[in-house]
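Design request, tokens follow.
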């Protein structure tokens, strides 16, 4: 069974993330979207909120599981018997950071490979940071995030 772990903060998950996830789900038997518990990041949404929103956003994709983890991604991937770490690229600027991360993971565990997927061009400018900025300044984020995320954030403002 080919299992991929798709790690990230997903704070919040975007349509670009979902695009990568759907592509991965077509290739792998199972994709585990793994929300990182990173105490150094100033989180916009709690981990539980992110997990819940992701579950609602991917409920129609049968071979996707949603989880959260702490620590090194490579150790989590080993624990989940994953063969692959799935990472999304929006622009060339993402590549250098992702390449370094991939090489570090490979040095820690050469049996787990990193696969990069590129989002559709219509999503390549969308980032969680951009979504937060638009949202916090009362802009319309409906075309950038899945409907459950949009509804949650719309209700959160009330």
């Amino acid at each position: 069974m080919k299992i991929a772990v798709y790690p990230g903060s997903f704070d919040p998950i975007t349509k670009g993330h979902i695009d990568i996830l759907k592509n991965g789900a077509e290739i792998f038997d199972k994709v585990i979207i793994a929300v990182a518990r990173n105490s150094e990041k100033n989180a916009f949404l709690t981990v539980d909120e992110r997990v819940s929103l992701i579950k609602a956003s991917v409920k129609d994709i049968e071979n996707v599981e949603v989880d959260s983890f702490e620590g090194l991604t490579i150790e989590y991937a080993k624990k989940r018997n994953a063969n692959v770490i799935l990472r999304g690229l929006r622009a060339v600027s993402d590549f250098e950071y992702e390449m370094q991360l991939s090489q570090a993971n490979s040095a820690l565990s050469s049996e787990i490979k990193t696969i990069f997927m590129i989002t559709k061009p219509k999503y390549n400018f969308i980032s969680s940071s951009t979504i937060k900025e638009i949202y916090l300044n009362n802009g319309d984020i409906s075309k950038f995030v899945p409907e459950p995320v949009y509804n949650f954030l719309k209700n959160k403002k009330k």
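Comment from the thread starter after seeing the answer: thanks! Helices lie at 15-27, 47-57, 73-79, 92-108, 128-136, 147-157.
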